Amino acid sequence: MTTVPRILIVVASTRTTRFADVPLRWLLERTRHRTDFEFEVLDLRDHPMPFYDLPLSPAMSPRNYTTAEERRIGPILDAADGFLLITNEYNHGYSAALKNLLDHFFVEFNRKPVAFLGYGSVGASRAIEQLRQVTSELEMVSVRPSVHLLGLQMIAIRQDPAAAVDIFASLEPRLDVLLTDLHWWSSALIAARAANADSDAA
Ligand SMILES: Cc1cc2nc3c(=O)[nH]c(=O)nc-3n(C[C@H](O)[C@H](O)[C@H](O)COP(=O)(O)O)c2cc1C
């Protein structure tokens, strides 16, 4: 079976003046020529969700969507074979908007890989470690290599946007390793989910 993994790039920051667009632009530029993946972007700023108010946990009540937002986003998550989260860091954690997204769904995430591109004083490392813990409860596999844009690099880019070229060039090898692992896991789990579906049907 040859299937090109569909990766959903999720942008976690919803701020009007956010920095997130800088790493997003780089990621899209670095990935647009790849033929071994299909990429789509889910920008949480474009998909505001109400704060969690579901009558039942999504784990107990799969795809029982009660809001227009869930009905819109659920199929997008379902169609993904893996996720690449672009995350900021607020008070050593990840954004409330991202947690709200994760809490609204369950089976849509199950048995799929998740990888991280973080930015912040220490590259959002603390937010990413929290996300590894939370996504494991969603039965996701977190990909070991992550990409970290450091606070000093963010400052340099803010002062001189042209500095982004060299800074992001230094991150390319790490992104390539991340994508190699993300491809391995998403391909392996596409096959495993398909085999599981066959055995369920038998
Ligand atoms: C409430 C708040 C808390 C923050 N806490 C952290 C933090 O714990 N670690 C960090 O690296 N940056 C922290 N920052 C700085 C962010 O990294 C910085 O604002 C970044 O631009 C946020 O991403 P965004 O602009 O895409 O929303 C914080 C910013 C705010 C507004």
Catalogue the ligands: flavin mononucleotide
Low-pLDDT stretches = none
In DSSP terms, counting alpha (H) and pi (I) runs of 4 or more, how many helices?
6
- Radius of gyration (Å): 17 Å
Number of domains: 1
What would the average pLDDT be, to the nearest integer? Answer: 96
Cα-to-Cα separation, first versus last residue: 19 Å
Largest sheet: 6 strands, parallel
Tell me the series of helices and strands, N- to C-terminal.
EHEHEHEHEEHH
Number of strands: 6
Helix content: 40-55%
How is this structure best described in words?
- It is a single chain.
- With 202 residues, this protein is of the alpha/beta class.
- The chain has a single domain, classed as Flavodoxin domain (Rossmann fold, 3-Layer(aba) Sandwich), CATH 3.40.50.360.
- The chain is 46% helix and 17% strand.
- The protein is built from six helices and six strands; from the N terminus they run βαβαβαβαββαα.
- Strands 1, 2, 3, 4, 5 and 6 form a six-stranded parallel beta sheet that branches.
- α1 links the parallel β1 and β2.
- The site of flavin mononucleotide has 13 residues, from loops.
